[in-house]
Amino acid sequence: MTIANGELDRVGGQARVLAATSAAASGPEHVEEPVAYDAILLASFGGPEGQDDVIPFLRNVTGGRGIPEERLEEVAHHYRAFGGISPINSQNRELKAALEAELASRGIDLPVLWGNRNWAPYIRDALTEANERGFTKLIAIGTSAYSSYSSCRQYREDYAIGLDATNLWDTLQIDKIRQFFDHPGFVQPFIDGVVQGLADVAAKGFTAAETHVLFSTHSIPSTDAAKSGPESRGFGDGGAYAAQHLAVAEVVIEAATTDEVTPAWSLVYQSRSGPPSMPWLEPDISDAMRDLAAAGTKAFVIVPLGFVSDHMEVKWDLDTEAMETAEEIGAFAVRVPTPGIHPAYVTGLVDLVMERVNGTPTADRPSMTELGPWYDVCRPGCCENVRLGFKPALAGLAP
């Protein structure tokens, strides 16, 4: 199948999924046919690993968006405060090693290849390695749990860009695991964290009535949020992105508390980077903290629900800026860990791969909200970027 020009191949008039295995090529919502994959593609955002990398990395991230250099310098300050080194690459090395150990312990022969979207090693490097090692069928794990352009479709576009860059359209097939926002392996670490966070707050003498749990995730443009997930689901203004976070937050708070001691909670956003004229999802976490403190809240449990590891936007936006806000308003705050390499998370990612290896029936796939299990093959038009339009993307039906 040659898709180098981004055109869809059609068989019998039925749209096919770009560079997919035969089991996924016709675009079923859930692939219940076993697939003998050769390797796992661990795909991440990437980050700089030294002061000289920071601006080139930020140019990669913002390429084509016309972001002025002075704005890049403002964001660079966050990285420079940590020596110009983003923790995300070291975290992915740890996750890769943890996945390899879990696979070995279960006798599963699937090598793990790692590639980033925005910094070395790039996705194209991982695809080149796959080809050199004779692998032809890859199952991708994108290190983002939710549905939106930035957290799902852009990864799928980058797989297509990687095939273009390596000229491997006719050689490699790439499927992906489903978005795992409500898989037990992703949710359990947050439940554990909230239990401990509430215990830490109580140990400081704060009551449940004085405490507020803030589930924080990356803000995205409101237009992108509205287009997240398939339109047929009718999620409303916040799209699947907001709906998924809210559903998971409800599960976490219910599992981590009892009726007698359940504190108030809300979904908040962080890390906005767009111009003031463009609406983004709100409220910002620091604004919410100020408003809640004015209404009597004295303690916060901050849950980085939208993140899989303690990368820069957790270390800066939460551990630095949100904690400064707490000090400013005279409140106590504790930040819950991200999944990282929590055993449940690592086991869960391997379980998600094995769903596709074994062709697990949809009814037997675990999900902790009524929204899942999410799709193996993304639906047509899912997670459109209104500003950029549709580009070729793998693991989903066009457009």
Task: Give a topology summary.
Elements: E1 10-11, E2 14-15, E3 39-44, H1 54-62, H2 69-80, H3 88-105, E4 112-116, H4 123-132, E5 137-142, H5 149-166, E6 173-176, H6 184-203, E7 211-218, H7 222-226, H8 239-256, E8 264-270, H9 285-294, E9 299-303, H10 312-315, H11 317-329, E10 332-335, H12 343-358
Parallel strand pairs: 3-4, 3-5, 5-6, 7-8, 7-9, 9-10
Antiparallel strand pairs: 1-2
Helix pairs in contact: 1-2, 3-12, 4-5, 6-8, 6-12, 9-11
Question: Can you characterise this structure?
Answer:
The chain is of the alpha/beta class and 399 residues long. It has two domains: 10-180 and 342-364, Rossmann fold; 184-335, 3-Layer(aba) Sandwich (Rossmann fold), CATH 3.40.50.1400. It is 38% helix and 12% strand. The strands form three sheets. A four-stranded parallel β-sheet has the order 4-3-5-6, with helices on both faces. The chain has a four-stranded parallel β-sheet with strand order 8-7-9-10, sandwiched between helices. Strand 5, helix 5 and strand 6 (173-176) form a beta-alpha-beta unit. Helix 3 (88-105) packs across helix 12 and helix 4 (123-132) packs across helix 5 (149-166). The longest helix is centred in the middle third of the chain and has 20 residues, at 184-203. Residues 1-11 have low confidence and may be disordered.
